[in-house]
Amino acid sequence: MAGNLDRRAGKGTRLNMAVAGVCAAVCVGMVGLSYAAVPLYRVFCQVTGYGGTTQRAAEGASRVLDRELTVRFDANAPKIPWSFEPAQSETKARIGETREIHYVAQNLSDHVVRGRASFNVTPEFAGAYFYKIQCFCFNDTTLKPGEKIDMPVVFYVDPAIVDAEEARGLQAVTLSYTMFQPPGDKLADAGTKPLEAADEITGDTSITRRD
């Protein structure tokens, strides 16, 4: 009788250990998936244009059409003590034509502040046809107090957009950037008097800094 109880207890212990092992493996897998979710989602958006995510290209389009689109530019910086705006509100570009425009950012605080930009294109389906050759998005840029910089964007609209059913009658698209402080940085309040700050400045080497 005692032997049967011992065997049953042993089986119960092994079963509990197996269940605990499976649960631990599931937990580890869920943690791993949570870390992978952000880059995988970003790749998915870049491939499909989902959510207005634009595409990346190393060079311009192979052909330029006579049809023009109005490209509007928008900027937001709600939680960072910077002024941030496009140098021009819109431009007309032929589809397939490579164009360069600039955004301008300035640190309005009295201390060094680091910024990072996210972006999207509207209407959202147009993101799949909006290609950026040069962009400051997702690059950290550090500005000294009062420092102002030009931030270039080089882009074109893929001629394939004219074959898209949803693009019929499309006259304009909007490229919008939101500037924010990277996660982990202490949120900074805007100061009123620019002061001298740290010597080391980091960020996109294509950015032009103004005195």
Describe the protein in words.
The relative contact order is 0.19. The chain has 2 domains: 1-48; 55-210, Ctag/Cox11 (Ctag/Cox11 (Pfam 04442), Sandwich). The protein is 22% helix and 33% strand. Strands 1, 3, 5, 7, 9 and 11 form a 6-stranded mixed β-sheet that branches. By secondary structure, it is α+β, with helices and mostly antiparallel strands. It has 1 helix and 11 strands, in the order H-E-E-E-E-E-E-E-E-E-E-E.
Topology readout:
Elements: H1 2-48, E1 55-56, E2 68-76, E3 82-86, E4 90-94, E5 99-107, E6 113-122, E7 130-134, E8 141-143, E9 148-157, E10 172-180, E11 208-210
Parallel strand pairs: 1-7, 2-10
Antiparallel strand pairs: 2-4, 3-5, 5-9, 6-8, 6-10, 7-9, 9-11
CATH superfamily of the largest domain, please? Ctag/Cox11
**Strand and helix order:** HEEEEEEEEEEE
- The CATH architecture of the largest domain: Sandwich
Number of helices: 1
Mean pLDDT: 77
Q: What assembly state would you assign to the polypeptide chains in this entry?
A: single chain
Largest sheet: 6 strands, mixed
Descriptive terms for the model:
Ctag/Cox11 (Pfam 04442); 211 residues
Could you give a short description of this structure?
With 211 residues, this protein is an alpha+beta fold. The chain contains one helix and eleven strands. The chain is elongated, with a radius of gyration of 25 Å.
